[in-house]
């Protein structure tokens, strides 16, 4: 049987929504990364939040938006900002009692897409 995705393991949509809210609350409070969200409309940000985490957790995303490379073009996200985001995600997941193993999986996923998001 296929391994249950983290999305379901963490409690499905309701739990993910709570994690997403907290993750973005922290992102928008962080001086190193919050400038990247200036001028981004809330609907966009919500879509971003959902895609961002559901992808990372292997949830049932029906994503037909732009590719990650397209979505971040012109933002010039730095490696330092990306690392900060990974830390904020990790801290947030800890708050929600996500296990070390599962946090490592999520971190690996986030690292795997880094080249599409950073530096362009
Ligand atoms: C430091 C890390 C990141 C920052 C600061 C960031 C920020 C942003 C911003 C500001 C946008 C909106 C661009 C626009 O409206 O023109 C965007 C788009 C997007 N981001 Fe991120 N992002 C990050 C990492 C990620 C990661 C890791 C994922 C997925 C796992 C992701 C998924 C997306 C998607 C799917 C879009 C496209 C949304 C669309 O085209 O409507 N982002 N990101």
Automatic annotation (TrEMBL):
InterPro entries the record matches: GlbO/GLB3-like, Globin-like_sf, Globin/Proto, Globin_bac-like_CS, Hemoglobin_trunc, Hemoglobin_trunc_I
Keyword list, A-Z: Heme, Iron, Metal-binding, Oxygen transport, Transport
PROSITE patterns: GLOBIN_FAM_2
Pfam families: Bac_globin
Highest taxon listed in the record's lineage: Bacteria
Residue numbers binding heme: 48, 72
CDD domains linked: TrHb1_N
Molecular function via GO: heme binding; metal ion binding; oxygen binding; oxygen carrier activity
Bound cofactor: record note: Binds 1 heme group per subunit.
Cofactor names: heme
Family membership: Belongs to the truncated hemoglobin family. Group II subfamily.
Protein name per Swiss-Prot or TrEMBL: Group 1 truncated hemoglobin
């Amino acid at each position: 049987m296929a391994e249950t995705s983290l999305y379901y393991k963490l409690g499905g949509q309701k739990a993910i929504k709570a994690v997403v809210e907290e993750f973005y609350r922290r992102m928008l409070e962080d001086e190193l990364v919050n400038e990247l969200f200036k001028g981004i409309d809330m609907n966009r940000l919500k879509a971003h939040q959902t895609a961002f985490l559901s992808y990372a957790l292997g949830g049932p995303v029906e994503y037909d938006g732009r590719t990650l490379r397209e979505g971040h073009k012109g933002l010039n996200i730095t490696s330092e900002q990306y690392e900060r985001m990974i830390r904020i995600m990790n801290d947030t997941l800890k708050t929600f009692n996500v296990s070390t193993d599962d946090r490592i999986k999520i971190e690996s996923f986030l690292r795997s897409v880094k080249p599409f998001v950073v530096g362009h």
